[in-house]
């Protein structure tokens, strides 16, 4: 009985938000919600990262808040123009920020180097594209 399709506007911000100078070129997001399950596709290109603050980079503007701990996950299937070399990116939906998704990364080729993407990893022309699957709160 609960089915919805729509669009959303994905952004990348720091944990503490974004200050002056932030600018985007492309921001595209589509979602399908069936009951408490959300499937969301997204992509964005920055023109200027501005003064994003906080140590961690997050995807914000989710079409629905996630359920919190173990709320879901996602993948980043394409990315360019990061400030630091990474071998893969992922997305974690959980914790105390139900309106955002945490970007994760593998640095190098070791499977033991998983950590969070920082605001220092993001540049003025960073591009990302991916998919999220998560439960609503």
Mean residue pLDDT? 90
Q: What share of residues is helical?
A: under 10%
Radius of gyration: 14 Å
Number of helices: 0
Features:
137 residues, mainly beta, ten-stranded antiparallel β-sheet, 10 strands, globular
Describe the fold and architecture.
- This protein has 137 residues and is mostly beta strands.
- Helices cover 0% and strands 53% of the residues.
- It contains no helices and ten strands.
- Strands 1, 2, 3, 4, 5, 6, 7, 8, 9 and 10 form a ten-stranded antiparallel beta sheet that branches.
- The protein starts with a strand and ends with a strand.
Question: What is shown here, in short?
Answer:
The chain has 137 residues and is mostly beta strands.
Secondary structure elements and their pairing?
Blueprint: E1 3-7, E2 11-14, E3 22-34, E4 37-49, E5 57-60, E6 72-80, E7 88-93, E8 100-106, E9 114-116, E10 127-135
Antiparallel strand pairs: 1-3, 2-5, 3-4, 4-10, 5-8, 6-7, 6-10, 7-8, 8-9
């Amino acid at each position: 009985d609960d089915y919805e399709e729509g669009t959303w506007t994905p952004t990348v911000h720091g944990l503490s938000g974004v200050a002056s100078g932030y600018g985007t070129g492309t921001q595209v997001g589509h979602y399908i919600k069936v009951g408490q399950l959300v499937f969301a596709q997204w992509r964005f290109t920055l023109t200027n990262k501005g003064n994003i603050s906080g140590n961690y980079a997050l995807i914000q503007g989710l079409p629905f808040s996630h359920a919190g701990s173990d709320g879901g996950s996602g993948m980043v299937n394409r990315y360019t123009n990061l400030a630091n070399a990474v071998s893969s990116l992922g997305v974690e939906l959980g914790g105390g920020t139900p309106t955002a998704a945490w970007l994760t990364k593998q640095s190098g080729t070791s499977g033991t180097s998983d950590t969070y993407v920082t605001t220092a990893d993001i540049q003025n022309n960073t591009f990302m594209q991916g998919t999220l699957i998560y439960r609503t709160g």
